[in-house]
Write a structure and sequence with these properties.
CATH topology of the largest domain in chain A: Rossmann fold
Order of helices and strands of chain A: HEHEHEHEHEHEHEHEEHEEHEHEH
Number of helices of chain A: 12
CATH architecture of the largest domain in chain A: 3-Layer(aba) Sandwich
Number of domains of chain B: 1
Structural class of chain B: alpha/beta
CATH superfamily of the largest domain in chain A: Thiamin diphosphate (ThDP)-binding fold, Pyr/PP domains
Oligomer: heterodimer
Strand order of the largest sheet of chain A: 2-1-3-4-6-5-11
Largest sheet of chain B: 7 strands, mixed
Number of helices of chain B: 9
Distance between the termini of chain A: 39 Å
Shape of chain B: globular
Helix content of chain B: 25-40%
Strand order of the largest sheet of chain B: 2-1-3-4-8-7-9
Distance between the termini of chain B: 43 Å
Number of domains of chain A: 2
Shape of chain A: globular
Largest interface: A-B, 40 and 35 residues
Radius of gyration of chain B: 17 Å
Order of helices and strands of chain B: HEEHEHHEEEHHEHEHHE
CATH class of chain B: Alpha Beta
Number of strands of chain A: 13
Number of strands of chain B: 9
Strand content of chain A: 15-25%
Radius of gyration of chain A: 20 Å
CATH topology of chain B: Rossmann fold
Amino acid sequence: MTGNEAVAEGAIQAGCQFYAAYPITPQNELIAYMAKHMPARSGQLNRVFIQAESELAAINMVFGASAAGKRAMTSSSSPGMSLKQEGISYIAGAELPAVIVNMMRGGPGLGNIAPAQSDYFQATRGGGHGDYHSIVLAPSSVEEAYNLMFLAFNLADKYRNPVIVLGDGTLGQMMEPLKKVRNPESKIQNYKKPWALTGCKGRKPNVIKSFYMKEGALEEFNLKLQKKYKEIEENEQRWEESFLDDAEIILVAYGTMARVCRDVVDNLREKGKKIGLVRPISLWPFPKKVFHRFTGKADQRKRFLVVEMSYGQMVDDVRLSCCGKAKVEFIGHSGGGIPTGEEIIRKINEKNI
Amino acid sequence: MKKIFSRPESLKNVTTHYCAGCGHGLAHRLIAEVIDELNIREKVIAVAPVGCAVVAYDYWNFDCTEAAHGRALAVGTAIKRVRPDNIVFTYQGDGDLAAIGTNETIHAANRGENITAIFINNAIYGMTGGQMAPTTLLGQKTATTPKGRDVRFQGYPLNISLLLGTLPAVKYVERVSLHNPQEILKSKRAIKQAFQNQIDNIGFSLVEILSPCPTYWEMSSEKAMSWIRDTMTKEFPLRRIK
């Protein structure tokens, strides 16, 4: 199964009731899978699939389905994500749950269809207008992509917040066996939605809105959002780590890039090099906690090497997390090429970091 | 004593924020009366636009959501698809439905979504201060057409209802007006038909309502009503289009 299909299958099993999207490479297997399986496996959930007329329509359909209390999702790739930003801002502003998948490709502009990780800033900094955050999850295998869809829908409902699943063209296109082995976390958590639009029978009317004209009302609402984001930052940092106890050089990479880095770590470990790996799984909230471990005096011999398929985006978060107390190096490029294991090893040796 | 006139249950007892002579209050009320008469208040989900009527939910006493500017029919599409037993309608101005949201409008209509669209055409952008709308008449002065709309630069008023009428999945389109009591009653009948169509699962229905904006037309309320009758209906004749 491809990563795109695993995401789709995960979404269906996680109780996705509404999916709308617009075709874009390299995530087309996802929309095709949903077109086939959402109606066929509708059951009692009344699953709806719509091929939308635009990325704008797709994300706003997700807004509508979510406002009506359903688990709703869309997917796209980089240029399409730019178009969705308005809708994501409204979803954040209306505090609606939603899952948005971005299988990143090269940019800026139309770019190309090669894998990239250049939308990290867009995903983790909000992306649209206003002070908001989406929760961002980054799978690095087909199996993990499947599993993270449960978490994505659960977190979206729990916090009434957009969740972006950030993969790239490689993950979307590559095939790996999917055993559908669910993590303990991978089950549907049911959250009550008394705010949803269902018709006002037996209760006062519900209103979904992000518009606050009364003096002071918007600031009050923003403070509420900030409080929620703080809670998410405290509770939802996720990462995988290897060999951190004795590592002198720690690679930091997410998604597809982390797979290359893991090979490098295994390779150099065999040669006796004290090297480790941090793989952020949640990109927002960024797993600062793991870096805070290495900002004490005793740890200043540690060196981080951040590897990305971009010209340096996540590296900013690593630097911020280290607060200038650890040395942070970077290697990365995008637009067609993926940093190779040889390149990374060369960098390690060259700089003698 | 018999009570013969009261506020519909679907309308809240609040003070209006709309300008004197504005048509939104009338249109809100007609919708509320229709919803009461059809006994669907507890099933209705409304989608409010961006524009003067964004806060329609402050007046209506049923479930409502906002939609981003122009996206009401995309939002409405999804609500109706996931909740087919509810009654879903959008309420949109000319900028919302026929400029920034033209794409969503045409495609929701073309898919034959079983929803009701109420389209308020006042030939101007009210909330932002009186700029040209897609439906602004030729020669009409606005903040962005200070010398009047000129076909050489701004093209013709967009007759979106006529355009929608050509789509096979669109089942009902009628243009009505609020300029006198007789036309107001006709407007109510059209709104009721559009909701009845949804109840009967007939498909996409749209009612275009010519509505006064005395503030940005820079007219008295009375003159605004006669301007609709004498000028606006020449460009946008009142009739059942489909």
